[in-house]
Every structure is written in structure tokens, then in C-alpha cells.
Specification:
Elements lengths: L6 E4 L9 E7 L21 E5 L3 E3 L2 E3 L3 E3 L2 E2 L1 H21 L2 E11 L1 H13 L5 E5 L5 H6 L9 E7 L7 H13 L3 E7 L7 H15 L2
Parallel strand pairs: 2-3, 2-8, 8-9, 9-10, 10-11
Antiparallel strand pairs: 1-3, 4-5, 6-7
Length: 213
């Protein structure tokens, strides 16, 4: 698949007549497409996994967008990367043996911001999200066209000791999606800005329950 995004793709061994769920991974600022694959490696034989690299150099890795300040992405860059990610998802569905009713997004930090924002603008075309230590930008809630998410399954988690993105922002995401009628699972962990082993266990349990129910 031709894309502006460098990415890693794994697919189940199957014949071309079978369609499988797809999971799209988006890393945090300064990381890359290798960062999150290990979290979900146990799912590689059950679904397509696309791990996407942000297009902006951010040593020691990459970023998906730049920010004016904590909690405030640069609007033009943020708008564009969301459009490009939607195109990536739509192109993947066209090209690969993907069940378009089983599209899942998983992101950490910057990737969680994008995961939640994509779910809100793509609506029920997205079946589920895993948002790890992120938030929903005010510009998304106030200025974007929010689509129905009443069929969305959302796993949202946040470190209680997060020193980069306040824990309360994760609680805010939970409350926002709940208000919109999404089926929300919220978890917190006594860690800073990272993914605890218990967090990995819980998100895998969520994905296995939802994708393969």
C-alpha cells in the first residue's frame, strides 16, 4: 500500500476469502513504529496490525504533530495528520482482507490523542479504541463535527502519577465518551507517563473480548 506513513504491517496467515479485524497503532512523541508492537504481538495471528510512524522528526524518534503548549496542538498540522490517518485507514480497508466493521485504534500519549480524535470524527465506523495516557484537545470538542459514537467500545487508561499529561485529562476523556453514549472501560494505575504491565494485561483482555466476542 502506497502511503505517506512509514509503517509496519502484520497479517494473519489465511486465504484471501477471509476478512479479519484491523488494529492501527499510533506511538507517542519521540518514539516510532516499533514502540507499541510488543504490546499486542499476541494478536498477530488474529488480526491485521498496522503500526504507523509519525511523519515529523522528533529525536530520538518521530511525532505526528507539533504543539503550541501542553494540551494545545498546532491546528493546521493536527488537522492534516487526522485527514492523512483517515485516508490511511480507508486505503488499508480497500487493499487488504479487512472486516470494515472491526476497525480498532490504539495509541499512547500523542497516539492516544489521535485515537480519541479519530473516533470522534469517524464515529461508528470505528468499532473500538484503546487510548493510553492521552486527552481530547479542546479544538476537537469545540470545533470539529463530532459523529455518533454510541456503538463504540473504548478502553481509556491513565497513570495516576502522570507528570506530563495530568491524570484528570484521562478522567475527562472517560466522562466525555460516556456522555456521548460510548461503552467505556476506564482504568488507572499508580505509574507516571507510561504503560504498566497491568495496563498491557487489561488492554489485551479488552481487545480479545471485543474483537473476538
Amino acid at each position: 500500500m502506497v502511503s505517506i506513513f512509514t509503517n509496519i504491517h502484520s497479517a494473519p496467515d489465511s486465504n484471501e476469502n477471509n476478512k479479519y479485524p484491523a488494529l492501527f497503532l499510533m506511538h507517542g512523541m519521540g518514539s516510532d513504529e516499533n514502540d507499541l508492537v510488543g504490546l499486542v504481538s499476541s494478536l498477530q495471528e488474529k488480526c491485521h496490525i498496522f503500526s504507523i510512524r509519525g511523519p515529523i522528526s522528533q529525536p530520538p524518534g518521530y511525532a505526528f504533530f507539533t504543539i503550541e503548549g501542553i494540551g494545545k496542538p498546532h491546528r493546521g498540522i493536527f488537522d492534516q495528520v487526522l485527514k492523512d490517518l483517515q485516508t490511511f485507514i480507508e486505503d488499508a480497508v480497500e487493499e487488504y482482507s479487512i472486516d470494515c466493521d472491526q476497525l480498532y485504534l490504539l495509541g499512547f500519549s500523542q497516539g492516544a490523542i489521535l485515537t480519541q480524535s479519530l473516533a470522534l470524527i469517524m464515529g461508528n465506523r470505528i468499532k473500538g479504541i484503546v487510548a493510553l495516557s492521552g486527552y481530547i484537545p479542546a479544538l476537537v470538542k469545540e470545533e470539529y463535527s463530532i459523529q455518533p459514537v454510541d456503538q463504540l467500545d473504548a478502553f481509556i487508561s491513565h497513570g495516576e502519577l502522570d507528570n506530563m499529561l495530568p491524570f484528570e485529562w484521562g478522567v475527562g476523556s472517560r466522562d466525555y465518551f460516556t456522555k456521548l453514549g460510548a461503552n467505556v472501560t476506564f482504568k488507572s494505575y499508580p505509574v507516571a507517563h507510561g504503560v504498566a504491565p497491568e495496563n498491557q494485561r487489561d488492554l489485551l483482555e479488552f481487545l480479545n473480548d471485543k474483537i473476538f466476542e
